[in-house]
Amino acid sequence: MVMQGLQVFDASGRLIFDASTSLTVVLGEVIIAPKTTVTVTNDGLLNGNPFIVATDMAAAGNWIDYSVSGNTLTLTYQVPSWNNSNFNNKKVIYGVY
Length: 97
Prior knowledge:
Layout: E1 7-9, E2 15-18, E3 25-32, E4 37-41, E5 50-54, E6 63-69, E7 72-78, E8 90-96
């Protein structure tokens, strides 16, 4: 088997980059309000394993559920009824790796 690809090593011979490994690609971002669902269509979601990163999720009891079907990402900002805090809109960054 012949190895192909690009590898970069530092002065000590340690591998610092290998083009055959997966790299993260940010496809976009969306703002989501509490207790809402947002759907995003992006063909880039077909090119890897999807991920999301939500900003400022420090308040207890809130979270963002997500699912991906084909090129469609669905986000739901969950806030339980027992938590009466004032939750703000959140930025969600999405992409693939």
